[in-house]
Sequence to fold (232 residues):
Amino acid sequence: MPRAVIACCAIPTLAVLFGVPSILAALVDRSGATTHRIVCLWSRLVLRIVGVRLEAQGLGHLPPGPAVFAANHASAADIPVVYAGLPAQFRFVHKRSLYLLPVVGQILLLGGHIGIDRERAFRARRSLERAAARIRGGTSVLAFPEGTRSRDGRTRPFKRGSFRLAIDAGVPVVPVSLVGVTRVMPAGLPSLRAGSVRIVVHPPLSTAAADGDDADRLAAETQRIVESALET
Fold:
């Protein structure tokens, strides 16, 4: 049976089998930690079933406290890759419209992830302010600063919001490169094929002396670092 057919059958089935326990766990453990561990298990199983080999580099660069992880976003495979390859508790910064998705939306909402209303600037600022307070309380977040998946494999300009969030929270930015994701899933589940993916964690960038005006500079520096691993 072609691998893409296996993936199209197995992934939705596993999403339901793991999604329901994830939602129930979020209702009991409001920190979201238990849900995170369940999703990590789902991600490792999905990658194994579809034949994606994952290599993680630079894990020694993970900071001891909360941080904003910033990664490139080129494929739907990015989500299981970061869950399976990044040994840190984190919550996603995502667009609020994802709350409308069945199962996934409930996991995001109950699991403590951070929804941003991109269409309303005031609500977006309020969401980022709440996110900064959560980070200061010890919760790391992971963001895809491009805002949406790249359709041609090339990184889009990193937007400043995630970096302003790190500056406001007073935590480092950790650049993360996801290498090879477009080779294993260039255009959704039907295009899935076996292969190798690499997640590279780069040294943290301090925000200790930064202010809001430094967000664009920090975004550009982070994008440069992320892209440096994609070229290898």
Q: What stands out?
A: The mean pLDDT is 84. The first strand starts at residue 52 and ends at 57.
